[in-house]
Amino acid sequence: MRCTFPHMGTMYVAVESLLEGLGHEVIVPPPITERTIELGQHGAPETACLPLKINLGNYIEAMENGADVILMGGGVGPCRFGYYAEVQREILKDAGYDFDMMVLEPPKGQLSLAWQRFKPLLTKVSLSETLAAARLAWAKAQIVDDIEKMTHQVRAFETVRGSATAARSKAIAKLRQTKHRQNLPLLLEEIGTLFQQVPVDLQRQPVVIGLVGEIYVMLEPFANRQLERLLGEMGVLVRRSSFLSDWLRGQFYSLLRFDMQKKARLLAGPYLPHFVGGHGLESVADSVNYANNRVDGIIHVAPFTCMPEIVAQSILPKVSADFDVPIMTLVVDEHSAEAGIITRLEAFTDMVKRRRTGRA
After folding, report:
1. Residues 269, 316 share a domain
2. Does residue 293 form part of some domain?
3. Per-residue pLDDT tens listing for the chain (360 residues)
4. Domain count of the chain?
5. Considering the domain boundaries, does residue 130 fall inside one?
6. Could you tell me if 273 and 243 are in contact, meaning their C-beta atoms sit under 8 angstroms apart?
């Protein structure tokens, strides 16, 4: 079978590695473009979240390149992500596409159920090969997050605009090409050298802005209209609250029935004392955490019509007032334009810089 899956930032690096290690042919969807969104929104409900529409476009473009099996995650709770797969399946079937969809639902501690869901992917290689593929994919997921963090750090100090972004692209390409885990230590040295070669001005004192919100639009640059790059090139030191390896670790720990939301519930408790689906609780908790750690500002990103983030958005003004930290909510959909986002970011960043100067 020729497998594909939706894009979510740099997730494709780890997923491609895992599926290839399990003996499958992998069709990675082309990079997301406006065409991707146009294809996806054609059959989707108008008020559906932007991630659902982008996912549909990913599948269509991958099937144009020969994919015949779609891997998609599932979910539980009040977030609409839980029925993305079923809605997408019906939309694509109605449009005449011929494919199989494999939905990987969160097992929530049920080991036998997890085995049944993953078993079709584990039939082509031995147990030792499966474990080796999983270890390599997990290592890549962690390294790609390290690359993102290095990019955030260096970009705020770069003297040649775009040089940190170029280093990031080269680093990810090198990681994607690496097929053996024993080659990763040398690769890490090469990646470090790439970022050390970026010309920087360490005399700068950039403002620090934390990013919170729904995980897809935080991790997928096309969905948030290159938010991190735009902020970094404005001289902002970006701190993102969630990364791919965090999300994957949470899925694994849920299998073992570990409580991954305990810290979030403690932080968000005075403002939001219960789960509301998606990452709504985390958005509040992460904002409180950033405020406690004295960031200069917080940007909350969310897809249009996302219910958990609407709940969080209604609470964040109280967090802002209690901690005296500016918080801006940025809602995105298929109509969001980079020019408009740049204008809002420039205004917010200028305000944050003036506040810091006033305190000095």
Report:
1. yes
2. yes
3. 899 999 999 999 999 999 999 999 999 999 999 999 999 998 898 888 999 999 999 999 999 999 999 999 877 677 788 888 899 999 999 999 999 999 887 666 566 666 777 788 888 899 999 999 999 999 999 999 999 999 999 999 999 999 999 999 999 999 999 999 999 999 999 999 999 999 999 999 999 999 999 999 999 999 999 999 999 999 999 999 999 898 788 766 665 556 667 888 899 999 999 889 889 999 999 999 999 998 999 999 999 999 999 999 999 999 999 999 999 999 999 999 889 999 999 999 999 999 988 765
4. 3
5. no
6. no
Residue-number span of the structural domain to which 140 is assigned? 136-155+157-203
Phi, then psi, of 30 in degrees rounded to 5: -60, 160
